[in-house]
Design a protein that fits this description.
about 120 residues, alpha+beta, Immunoglobulin-like, 2 domains, four-stranded mixed β-sheet, 1 helix, elongated
Length: about 120
């Protein structure tokens, strides 16, 4: 084989590889856009809603907003997750998947603030 056809074949292989990488990246972005986002509000010792419904066996994002005037800490011993937020801030926790069930959550800075996260 002469050098020109070999070079063309190499370029074609690199181009095919690049197209595969770009397509795979596009699929990843589509999945991130499709991930359910469940919103939770924490406000000076109150968690809204009291029953947080999330999809079981599905990746999702819990978006937590502190609309109060004091810091809060979303926490769950069962889920092994915690997130502290300053007043007026918003942050998120991404869960890969959760088994169906009910999980206790609370505000570690306001011990009377409790809710249930229900995966179904």
């Amino acid at each position: 084989m002469s050098p020109a056809p070999q070079k063309s074949a190499t370029v074609a292989r690199h181009l095919a590889f690049a197209v595969c990488v770009i397509m795979a990246a596009g699929v990843g972005f589509a999945r991130a856009d499709e991930m359910p986002v469940i919103k939770v509000e924490m406000k000076d010792g109150v968690i809204i809603p009291k029953i947080i419904e999330v999809p079981a066996n599905t990746r999702f994002k819990l978006e937590i907003s502190n609309t109060g005037t004091s810091p809060v800490e979303f926490e769950s011993m069962e889920l092994k997750r915690e997130k502290a937020l300053a007043a007026g801030s918003t942050s998120g926790i991404v869960f890969r998947t959760l088994d169906p069930g009910t999980y206790d959550v609370f505000d570690d800075f306001h011990p009377d603030a409790k809710a249930k996260l229900v995966a179904k």
